[in-house]
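Recall that a protein's primary structure is simply its ordered list of amino acids. Everything else, from secondary elements to tertiary packing, is in principle encoded there. The following example makes that idea concrete.
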Amino acid sequence: MRELARTDRRAKIRAAAAALLVLAGGCAAGAAAGDAGPDGRADADGVRDADAGTDPGPDPGADAGLDAEPDPGSDLPSPDGADGDGGEAEAGPWCGDFCDPFSIVLLPDTQYYTSKQSWGEGNTYRKQMQWILDHRASHNIRFVIHLGDITNNNTVEQWEIADRAHRMLDDAGVPYSVVPGNHDYLSPFSRSGTRFNDYFGPTRFAGRPWYGGHYGGGNENNVALFEVGPMRFLVLNLEYGPRKDPLCWAEDVIAAHPDRQVIVVSHCILTHGGAYDHNCPNVDYLVPGGDGETIWDELVARHSNVFLVLCGHVGDSELVPRTGHGTNLVHQMLVDYQFEAACTAAAPASCTSHCQDGTYTGNGWMRELVFHPLEGRIEARTFTVEEGNAVVFPGGRPWFFCSPTNPVGPEDHRWYPSDPCDPAHQFSFEHDLRPPAADVRTDAGRRGFTDRTVNTIGDGDQFAPRIAGRPGGDFVAVWEDDSSPADGAGNLDVMARGFAAGGCQRFAQLEVNPTTAGQQRAPAVGMAADGSFVVAWEDDNDGNGVFQIYARGFRDDGRERFAVRTVNSVAAGQQRRPAVAVAPDGRFVVAWEDDQDGDGDLQIWMRGFAADGSERFADRSVHDDDAGNRRRPALAALPDGGFIVTWEDDGDGNGYYQIHARGFGPDGAERLARWTVNRVADGQQYRPAVAADAAGGFVVLWQDDPENDGNYQIFARGFEADGRERFADFRVNQNGDGQHLAPAVSVADSGAFVAVWQDDSDGNGSYQIRARAFTAAGTERRAEWTANRFADGQQRAPDVFLERSGDSLVVVWEDDMDGNGAYQILAGGLDLPP
């Protein structure tokens, strides 16, 4: 009897796949993607009917979308169908009892069904859910995916309609997933400004067998799992314009399920013509996040088991195959018909202004993806639940109005063919559904990442970021932080957070200074080849207005390596603005401004340490004399433990500063005598930055005002390890207008380098972070570019880490893109051309 029941069920499913019509008029579905018959329609190989009246009804044995029959488990044949004796003929097909077609239903933007329609039998959202329930058994529907923009205005009334619609699936045990779109947030846009979690939060799905969890406290990023016999799937649902941390979480989820075939869903990925949508999140929203290309580069392309990407957001139908780094073919699909408006005319030719017209809702269009295990094929069937409704379509016959046959509407609203039978709407593509090999992750050397927030607590201000990294691309960022309420507003602490190459977290944000009283400011950081790092900062924990220089060491995972120690031996006077350089073996040097005699004239002092924090050489003056004023030291570690120090120098006390430098060996003894870096002495030269290559050569940057008119440029000069000039002074910034300030530099092993600075070349008072890459000879490698994605507000105080190979870099800066006066720390990664 069990075999007879199974045979009867198969017969029903196959009969539905072969005979049911998708659209009135017998639209032929299932042509290979891009392949049309001689009449311009897809070649027929099986169609379905959207008329629920022909369906026998839901399968009473179905449970949570999984087959009611026992899983064959270990009795399944091998993936190639052979058992070693008789091959497929004896062992049966690889899919065993699960070779019949099954489907996933896609729900594109439902926002107008919740905002322009009330709940009731005529509500299109309700009709779509009823269609799923009516066809669950005959179409073997295993999962339902909503593509975002559940509501239009994030109102309670609209969420209530969506809730009632999905409650229909809940009550029937149909597995589904949801993801928010941009319209599901408040206006103006805010990541926290959504009612999504009030209705579709984790508690709604808790205990559901298909629900696999979520990222953070909400459900904007969630995972679902379902199986069809030996075919195991994972659905990753990502927030609108996903931030870096959810993308990293998604990578971890894939790694934790290496045997799953992966579907990635996010509301906004593709746009018209199949290009990536680069306006997600919308630049006007002023929030960091990834666009369509980010999702590809930083997630999809890296994982061999991702085979399908789904999105809505843009009114169009697109299919874009692309090969990932692991040679896996990924089909990226845009499905959204939300701008289709109802037309009661007698014929489609009379529906000349029914695209994004005031009555538009989407006309009930949705899509079913039919999986054919034995054929290794996935079929896309687009249909509408409003077929036969003469209030929506002329004579009730479905038609698309956002098409070239719409002569009155704007040309940019003619997105797809009007004929529902066109291959733009009905198509298929090949995909091997057999269980894949374990997922393989590879970034193919691409470690760039879109702008991300570094600080995990957004309260208060975050200033003065510094960055250091190691070979391979791992890095750590440190900054001043005013997020803690414990010590009062305006009292800064020093924070650190570690990242792997590519921008995912290696260790969580930590407080560097164990004593939080008073002020801790001006952090500096250096990293050894093994990833251990040292942070130095100026500290006034007793609140007496006098600062000391402290340092603390950490292992590569953020655990303490050595405890906090005072760097300066003489506590009298002021000690400010430390710099730190860490050699590849972990030995380090700290330099700082020092006024231990209290005369108001600052000098540069330094002290050397072993990797464990013990003294290597005692405090000493960098320049030996104490005439005039010396400020803002910068350090570069050399491969053998030696180092270069640069600083602002007004030794003659005339009020004009030059950039001086001096080289030292590992023991603090002089290696290169003091010299002036800038060859033109006119005007002011401030804020030096220095970095060294694997052979001991180095590059110095500074901001320079040779005309003494108050407008600064960024200059650079290169040197060999013995102090000889490698290349002469030159201006780094290409546009000489306006202000160019706060330079930073990082040098690869080869001597190639990257310079960054804050730039207001248009003189509007708003700064951007600009960058430019050079060869070891000082010739341009990449033309100047803007490092920050969002240009609104202020971006200041950059620092940069160029990975030792010179292939990728990370820039950090303080950012107030929304102009509210509060700064956050942002970072962005970039891959450089060879």
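DSSP finds nine helices and 41 strands in the chain. The two ends are 67 Å apart (CA to CA).
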